[in-house]
Amino acid sequence: MALIPDLAVQGVQMLLVLALAPLLLGFTRKVKARMLRRRGPPLLQPYRDLLRLIRKEAVIAENASWLFRSGPYMIFAATWVAAALVPTFATGLTFSWAADLIAITALLGSARFFLALVGMDIGTSFGGIGSSREMMFASLAEPAMIMIVFTVALIAGSTQLSTIAHFILTNASLRVSLGLALVALIIVAIAENARIPVDNPATHLELTMVHEAMVLEYSGRHLAMIELASAVKLLLYVSLIACIFFPWGLAPPDADLRAFAVGAVSYLIKLLVGGFLLVLFETSIAKMRVFRVPDFLGIAFMLGLLGTLLRFVSGSF
Amino acid sequence: MPVAMALTGVAALLATSLIAALLQRLRGASRLVYLICSIVCVVLLGLACSQLLAPAHPAPTMALPIGLPWIGAHFRIDALSAFFLLVTNLGGAGASLFAIGYGAHETAPGRVLPFYPAFLAGMNLVVLADDAFAFLVAWEFMSLSSWALVMSHHADGENRRAGYIYIVMASFGTLMLLLGFGLLAGAGGGYTFSEIRSVAAAVLPGLTLTLVLIGTGSKAGLVPLHVWLPLAHPAAPSHVSALMSGVMTKVAVYGFVRIVFDLMGPAAWWWSIPVIGIAGITCVMGVLSALMQHDLKRLLAYHSVENIGIIFIGLGLALAFSAYGMQAPAALALTAALFHVFNHCLFKSLLFFGAGAVLNATGERDMEHLGGLIHNMPLTALAFLTGCTAISALPPLNGFVSEWLTFQAILLSPALPSWGLKLLVPAVGAMLALSAALAAACFVKAFGVTFLGRPRTPRAAGAGETERASLAAMLAFALFCLLSGLLPGLCIDSLAPVTHALVGAHMPTQTAMPWLSIVPIAESRSSYNGLLLFAFIVLSTLATIEVIHRFASRQVRRAPAWDCGFPDPSPATQYTADSFAQPIRRVFGSVVFRATESIDMPPPEDGRASRMIVIVRDLVWEALYAPIAGIVETVAERLNRLQFLTIRQYLSLVFVALVGLLLVVSIWP
Amino acid sequence: MVSPALLNPMLDALSAVLVIPAAGAVALALLPGYWLSARLNVLVSFATLLAAVSMLLERPVPGTFLFVDDLNIVFVVLTAFVAFTTSAFSASYIGHELASGRLTPRYLRFYHAMYQTLMFAMNLGLLANNIGLMWVAVELATLTTVLMVGIYRTHEAIEAAWKYFILGSVGIALALFGTILVYMAARPVLGEGQDAMVWTTLIKQSSGLSPELLNVAFVFLMLGYGTKVGLAPLHAWLPDAHAEGPTPISAVLSGLLLNVALYALLRFKMLLAGNPAAVAPGSLMVTMGLLSLIFAGFMLYRRRDIKRMFAYSSIEHMGLITFAFGMGGPLANFAGLLHMSMHSLTKSAIFFAVGHIAQAKGTQRMAEIRGLTESHPVLGWGLVLGVVAIAGLPPLGIFMSEFLIVSSTFARAPLLALLLVLGLLIAFGALLLRLSEVAFGEPTGSTAPVKASYAPLFAHLALVLAAGIYLPAPLVAWFQTVARLLG
Amino acid sequence: MTGAWFDIAHMLAGGLVLLSLMLLYQDRMFALLNVFALHAVLLSLSVAWQAQVQHAPHLYITALIALVLKAVVIPVALRRIVVRLGIHRTIETVVGVGPTMLAGMGLVALSMVVMLKATAQADPLAREDLAFALSVVLLGLLMMVTRRNAVSQVVGFMSLENGMILAATGAKGMPLVVEISVAFSVLIAFIVIGVFLFRIRERFDSVDVGALDAFRGERW
Fold first, then answer.
1. SS3 for A88?
2. Could you give the 3-state DSSP secondary structure of residue C365?
3. Collapsing DSSP states into helix, strand and coil, what is residue B536?
């Protein structure tokens, strides 16, 4: 296939995720507000916030190290690249084989690794709380994710997202293990994006915050980078679920523009549905105590392991 | 004649240790010794590379008229030995280079210098040996010299205890190996490896496998034989710890591979089950124990246990695959294991170097007394951070690649017909995933508490950057970590002859792949391209920075930490290592370590501070080793009464023996 | 009737090995002054060594009383060598004893005379071609050592000597009864008189002797000479005799006298091995060897006196050697011989070191000896090396023999090998535990440098190291022939 | 040889066994010494008889040594020791006389079985002799084991050694018998001197183990 258009498509994809991420965030906030009988912020509020943050000067603690200043960019970049590797509207992108699902998971892992580190850099107790809890969640969420990957990979016979999507498209059939994987993935997604019931993105109440505690010391452009990164991460997970479990409408490799358009539209729809369901879920339950989260994530881990076992035992599940 | 060259190198090392024994008093002796060591190691490294990249057929051998008289000492460099020779001397060279700077601070050089080259020589000899006797001599010599190094700071009773446990475990392992070789060689005493190979199938393979697993596992640190490791590795000077953790454990892996894959003949499927099972448990136990530590070097040592587990998972899978004749997957699994051997040698040495540098700069190993070192030791911090990222299996560094390969191998294992494996492998895969995630947590803790935050003690505050030579070693290894992460194809291809010799196949040539990405089986199935990923990340980072700094603000204001409005001046309020691990301890520790937390809250009137007591127990020690020690103690005590009998009672012993024997004779047919 | 063979006018090497120490004993008994006598002692021992070595070159013809064959020449040369180095050690050791007033010049003269008498007795026992003569020689050796063990005249010393004396006498008596029984067994075949007790003729006719009688005889011989070897449960005299006597004597006891007794045992084992109908002596030796090994291993843990500890380690190694010879077969026998020579060298070296250490620290209690490598580096590292060697770590010689014993046993009798390994591990643990206390840690006691000649110590260790790395071919061939002799 | 010769030798040897049993039975010092003297006399008789039978004149020397040393000198010496140690009233046996006697019987039986089984083809005189000798040896050992007192143990050892001499002389034409008996006498002399010099009374079997610990140089 010709290199230039492929690169172009890849570039479009990267910009697309960057552009859509705040929108998804705004959408969820809006819907949430509506559900709580509030008017809520306008849909584009996240963009405004980001712009303002970027323009502001960055206030940094005296004892911040170079890691603290370069952290946000690395985190953002890692997340962005990971998101760019997940097929959104088209499969078989040029660089999609640069990293398979495991690698994408690990990329998010490195983003979290640095997030946790910068949380500890200033040496405040809040940063410590945030990092240690984040790593505790991660120590369960990541293996759960790997188990999900196993299940899916064993079904599709590949860890390449494009191949998986293609496989699901071509011979779609309800599978127990796939269902398990879906539930597990949703749980992991909620935990990873610091949503209710695991964490509350809106709170700054000391004892409950996890993600917010890590980024407490950030301001200005650095904070903007981190906010954007988390927005992209949310988008990533939604599109990941969409790509693995609802790959319909994805444009096949070397497709024409019409297919791309179809893909884009269907992707947009998927995003909205996903965001809506997320909000629905969030508003319907309350946040849980920190030490009940492991049980929550443990469920995901067990489901993933179960799915993998079933696949190992027989191909028919 | 490569073998002769290698042996010359070894001889040079031994000579160096003699010289060191004589010249230890001299000023600059340590620089000289370490310089010689690093040069010799580099030479051997080159030799190993040449042998690995262009293996001679048949493998060059050499026999010296020493050792067992009627056998002599045989040495051989085939692909496998070449690879491990490479690993050994890579680690050796790095450690020696590091020690050129580090060794200057040694308080008792006379107890380190003579044994350090001997230790290197011993490890090289193990890899070179081609008959059972030479192998065991080298093996035990390695243990002996490292024991001397562990004992180098003997004033501390803890170190003496560590050394004692170490040497006992080591010789226990050696005796097990000895028995194993006894089985392999048979009553005839055919001790050369070629003779052992020529025997079609091992007698009592189960027993042999057990013995070998115990023998090599006790040196590599498989649970539950790992107890000596977290004691002994930290006790030694840091560059030696780096060697012990980064290289000696790999030599143990070599022993296992050599015997099980090479000498024991065709594998049976059930061999893999104990290996994989123990390996999985080792992973989790190792990393969890590491998380519980607040002594930096002990944390690293425990973490070696975890990595050994990962390596043995790969080896076990390779055994299973090759037992069922699935050569390509076997090659994949074996490659994963060996590549991880290489990687672990790199980043574990690097991390121990870092720990050593910190130890030199602050005189502290306890993380609770450190913190904020990133400001005074930026380069060390950078190198250490690279090591942490690599060992936590994060892309784009090398640790991730080998673990990724291991995952790919696991994903191939449903094809295995055995039901036991069908159930075992996914469970172990889960353990691997779990330990990978925990490793990340562990090294966030290690780096965050040691280098980030505010200094917890004046010594930490007053730290300075370490010597140039040491820095060079660390940065070089960091660079290697990055490179082998970006260009894994090269390493994988250079492993091809090894896997080909052991399991009869090798992975597809990676350097032929487009864009230098690695593809274990087929691109549609799975592929990974570290280089591209790295380029991506770097580019997008730069782009973002560029954009923001150009079109948005770039000014910075320094201010006191915000900390939700009430910042606390005292660094004591920071999260400590223990408190960082507390959530995980509550999740896992209560099961694995019977960890209990109790808070001692004084009544209102008395002024003492309230304390939190955390008790973490080592169940392996309590369940396995303490009873054995107890038994020996009691038996010794009971028998000891025989020392205090009277002559008449001794006579009656003789009398009873006589009468008893006479009775036997009289009733003898 | 011994005399004619000794006062043989033509002084061939054979009688020289006996006459030189005998004459030396007389001279030393007459000679006053310790400086001179110590030197003379060394000189005489050296002359004996020369004579012994000369026997390697040309074998004297076997007589009715004395003879030399491949087996006993190993022992003779070894004995002469260790005796020589030990005399050199004692020359530097005894001076201090005299200075510290533990010994008076009178006792010293007695000591030197007895030393040579002991050498004479041991050489006689080794070279005797007549089992009766061998018995007499061993008894003589026992008596002399008894006298030397008690030489300090302390309560402990006398008690140890007395215990040694009584147990030794009983053992000797049992051995005699065994000897008589052998004669009885041989008489019908070889007729009355000399021949029935002459070794060379006995071994020729071994297949014809009455097996039942031989069995009974071997029981007595095993217990009799086994007492001297120090096999459990007949070992009781050994630790105290080592601990309370002068250190050179401990070295000689461990390094040589035990070997002589073992040699006697081996002779009779060959006799039984030559007789198909007789019960195989191996099983008995294996049992007692294993018993001693494990028992001594456990006993090592509770020791507080450094010399007594190494005495127990001698029991352990004697057990191991007996085990090896009991297993038989070319490999095991070779290993047994090798182990025996290595043990003699190493153990005597250890006692050299221990002697100087005890003098430097003024105590034998390990609790009061700490951090030797700090306070007395040369001695300390010497001790470390010795213990490492005796514990069977490479590259020192004992590792090779243990390697051969264990691996060859495991192929033939796995269970026995496991027990063997168990015993070795137990002993190893105990030795290293004590070593890491004594040689390392904060030094205690006096750190005053000792004036001592380290030559004997390091000569032995160097030999052991060399043997561990490279065994010269002729030695190997020779050991192999002996191993074949032992069947 | 004729039956009479044989019977006499037989009778003498048997007498020795009987006396050994009597030694076991004695519980008074002086009586013990007397019985032992008798033992020695009987031994010298049997040795002399063997010399006669075997036409081996050198055995007379052995007989003489036995007579002079064991029947006269040593008993006298021991008597003096007993007196000066003041132990002529006491004999502390470890187990009672009854069991000891039973054990003695058992030992005699055992030695009979062993010897007669082992020496099937040897000539009868030698067989009987050996069997008796072995039982004397075992009884002597038993005595050493069951007596606490140094002197009585010396006696036990000497009776054991008598058994040796009996066996040695019984073994027809055995060389070095004289040397051996001389060597043994030296041994005995040493023991007696030892007892005499070092006042060894309880050293054989100190009742108080604490004292022994000191001697072992352990447990300070």
1. coil
2. strand
3. helix
| Residue A85 token pair | 């590797």
- Alpha carbon distance A63, A69 (integer Å): 11
Query: Is the model's pLDDT at C4 over the cut of 60?
Result: no
What are the residues of chain B with a beta carbon less than 8 Å away from any beta carbon of chain D? 643-644, 646-649, 651-652, 654-655, 658-659, 662-663, 665-666
> If pLDDT is split at 50, 70 and 90, which confidence band does C6 have?
very low
> Of B97-101, C184-188, D139-143, which range is least confident?
C184-188
C-beta separation of B582 from B589 below 8 A: no
Is residue A199 within 8 Å of residue A192, measured between CB atoms? no
The whole-angstrom distance between C37's CA and the closest CA on chain B is 36
Question: What is the SS3 assignment for C16?
Answer: helix
Q: How many CB atoms lie within 10 A of CB B607?
A: 6
When pLDDT is averaged across residues D34-61 and rounded to a whole number, the result is: 89
Nearest CA in chain D to B644: D213
Q: Predicted confidence band at D219 (pLDDT cuts at 50, 70, 90)?
A: very low
Cα radius of gyration rounded to whole Å, chain A: 19
Tokens of B372: 């904020």
For chain A, domain boundaries: 3-313
Q: Are A95 and A103 in contact (CB under 8 A)?
A: no
Distance CA B483, CA B493 (A): 15
**Can you tell me which residue has the tokens 């996240």?**
A46
CA dihedral sign of residues B607, B609, B612, B615: negative
Judged on CB neighbours under 10 Å (0-12, 13-18, 19+), A289 is: exposed
pTM for this predicted structure: 0.93
Q: How far apart are CA B249 and CA B218, in angstroms?
A: 10
Structure-model confidence comparison of residues C9 and A281, the more confident one: A281
* pLDDT tens digits, one per residue of B591-638: 888 888 888 888 888 888 888 888 888 888 999 999 999 999 999 999
Contact B137 C394 (CB under 8 A): yes
The tokens 């003789």 sit on which residue? B654
Structure tokens given for C327: 């297993």
Whether A37 shows a pLDDT value over 60: the answer reads yes
User: Model confidence at C3, in pLDDT bands (50, 70, 90)?
Assistant: very low
| D208 pLDDT more than 60 | no
Beta-carbon count within 10 A of D73 CB: 14
Instruction: Give the whole-angstrom CA distance, residue B509 versus residue B486.
Output: 16
* pLDDT class of A113 with cuts at 50, 70, 90: very high
Reported as type and span, the H/E element at residue B598 is strand B596-600
- pLDDT score of C444: 85
- The confidence score (pLDDT) of residue C11 equals 56
Contact list, C243 vs chain D (CB under 8 Å):
217
D95 touches chain B (CB under 8 A): no
Distance from CA of D77 to the nearest CA of B (A): 23
Chain D environment of B655 (Cβ under 8 Å)? 141-142, 144-145
Q: Report domain extents, chain B.
A: 1-183+233-260, 583-617, 624-667
Q: Omega before B396 cis (within 30°)?
A: yes
Q: Within an 8 Å CB–CB cutoff, is residue C361 touching chain D?
A: no
Chains that touch D (3 or more CB pairs under 8 A): B, C
What 8-state DSSP symbol labels residue D95? S
Calculate the CA C85 to chain-centre distance. Answer: 14
Convert the pLDDT of each residue in D2-34 to its tens digit: 567 778 888 888 899 999 999 888 878 888 899
Taking the CA of residue B171 and the nearest CA in chain C, the distance in Å comes to: 8
**Would the pLDDT of B118 be above 80?**
yes
User: Exposure string (b/e) for C11-25, b if CB count within 10 Å is 16 or more?
Assistant: ebbbbbbbbbbbebb
Average pLDDT, chain D: 80
